[in-house]
Design goal:
Largest sheet: 4 strands, antiparallel
CATH topology: Muramoyl-pentapeptide Carboxypeptidase, domain 2
Structural class: alpha+beta
Number of strands: 4
Shape: globular
Strand order of the largest sheet: 1-2-4-3
Distance between the termini: 51 Å
Strand content: 15-25%
CATH class: Alpha Beta
Number of helices: 10
Number of domains: 1
Helix content: 55-70%
Order of helices and strands: HHHHHHHEEHHHEE
CATH superfamily: Trafficking protein particle complex subunit 3
Radius of gyration: 20 Å
Length: 197
């Protein structure tokens, strides 16, 4: 951690509640001023998908997570990210009304992904049977964003590790077998979903 980062972290931790509450209204007013300057929330941003990922992850989130890692320890942060990500996924999938929780329904969710996933991931289906669905991801903007910031371990805990929870939450008999990931530096992500009888 650089001297500047240490100074910023030290000064931020020294801020009292009283001074924080005097700063927040000013910051909120500044945000409102920015909102007035924008024409519409739905206006096109003129950014590529890669630029959106850089903005969303590399500008603030990854540096914040790396700062937390330096303060609480890498293993603690990674454990907490895995636990929270698993919980979030289980909650989200558990609330969805999914009429059929078989492998074909699960695979359909991957084959017919929403636009964000269509642009963030590229890959190919390797196997598609009633018992096994396997595919390989050859491009992933999450992996690119985290690896460019030397934070593949954080990205894996936050983005890739929850894939196991997705399978469990969708159907307890659905098992994910993964042998490699782009996030961990391999040439692709290998995902094989098996529906146990």
């Amino acid at each position: 951690m650089s001297c500047n980062e240490t100074a910023i972290m030290t000064s931020a931790s020294d801020v009292s509640r009283r001074s924080l509450f005097s700063i927040l209204p000013t910051a909120a007013a500044g945000c409102l001023g920015c909102a007035r300057a924008a024409h519409s929330w739905t206006e096109k941003a003129g950014m590529t998908w890669e630029e959106i990922f850089q903005f969303a992850f590399q500008k603030d989130l990854i540096p914040i997570l790396k700062g937390l890692s330096a303060q609480i320890g890498s293993e603690n942060l990674l454990r907490m990210l895995r636990e929270i990500s698993d919980w979030r996924v289980a909650q989200g999938i558990g609330r969805r009304a999914i009429p059929k929780r078989d492998l074909a329904s699960f695979a359909a969710g991957i084959k017919f992904r929403p636009p964000l996933f269509q642009h963030a991931l590229a890959g190919e289906i390797i196997e598609d049977t009633p018992q096994v669905f396997a595919y390989r991801v050859t491009k992933c903007l999450w992996a690119k964003a985290f690896r460019e910031e030397d934070a593949g371990d954080i990205g894996y805990a936050m983005v890739c590790y929850p894939d196991y929870a997705v399978a469990r939450a969708f159907n307890p008999k659905l098992k994910l077998i993964r042998t490699k990931t782009l996030m961990q530096g391999q040439d692709s992500c290998s995902l094989r979903y098996v529906m146990e009888s």
